[in-house]
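Protein entry
_____________
===
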Amino acid sequence: GDGCGHTLLTLHSGTLSSKNYPGTYPNHTACRWHLRAPPGTSLLLAFGDVDLEPSERCAHSSLLLADPEAGTAYAGPYCRNASPATPLLVTNSSTVTVLFNSTSHRSGRGLLLSYATSQHPGRGEHPPGIQTPPPQAVVYCPAGCKDIDGDIWGNPTQGYRDTSVLCKAAVHAGAIADELGGQVTLSREKGITLYESAFANGLQSKRGSLSEKRLIFHKGSWAPSLLSLLPACSDVLDVATFNASSWWHEVDALGQDRAWVAERAALGTAGHSWAAEPGSEAAWLELDLGTRRKITGIITKGSSEQHDYYVTSYRVSFSRDGKNWRPYRGSGGQEDKIFEGNIDSHGEVSNAFIPFIVARYVR
């Protein structure tokens, strides 16, 4: 009877959907989401999509918003013939229960809903699937935009085609962390002939043709330029020294030596890169920046098409003195964050550090 689909709920914002959204939701299901904001704040709910099969009094499928403490309904029931009057619902409560139910039906995409709190002016005006922002805007994107339906075209360097799903593109650009959401500043600039695809922050964008306008993200945006670390601006940080747990001393079929030493890990190095000794466990690569720096992201690349070696996932730890190390856990996480790495040996993959790191050493 589980009718819950994609769900990411945090104290300040979140995104939820019915099961299979935007495909037809299943028969005979039920789901309840309990939303709770900090005391003294109120919840604002944005209806991204409510497409439930019509019926008298929404008896076959319904969306109902209720006050869990008073036991009364805020709004609804909603379905296709009784849809919300406006895309934004401002409540006067810090708690709301969202109830979704279905019986037998034939059609309907289901529901997509986001929320935020009154601590964020302007939030809720833009449901997670928004596609047309004003020329210049400050937009609040709720947590959970990464896994909603919709495409993005472009990458953090060149910007995004203006038909891209806005908040999903903001996650791809590293402007916000999907697990927290947040405010982003963006502008619409003149479009370009071709938008190149890229894998960044766990999302794959698409390659797309000319559009009239493109989206440029200004908060937390950084541009990529093997391995690079990124400061707050778009420059790539210089690495003073590379170190590693081990390195591979290869003897090829012709008896020639090839050393896959740590120094070869710099992005842009011609030929082979760094590789740990075959069979080694818990291998690491260490970068010494020479002094403490503010680091906002990392770019990784495989060894080259010729060798076809690459890292598919990794953890990051950092240190100010090279002795005491802290694992990177992202935005309030309790576990070490695992970054999605490369899927081939030639493409570059970007990952943002939100919050940023201040350190001299990175592993």
